[in-house]
Design brief:
Blueprint lengths: L1 H25 L1
Keywords: Membrane, Transmembrane, Transmembrane helix
């Protein structure tokens, strides 16, 4: 439960950054 909550919070906080990094990785 705690792990899932932390993962959700991380995705909500760093979501945009992860998207940018993923795009840079593809390019």
């Amino acid at each position: 439960m705690m792990l899932t909550y932390q993962s959700g919070a991380t995705l909500t906080t760093a979501g945009p950054l992860l998207v940018v990094l993923f795009i840079c990785f593809l390019v």
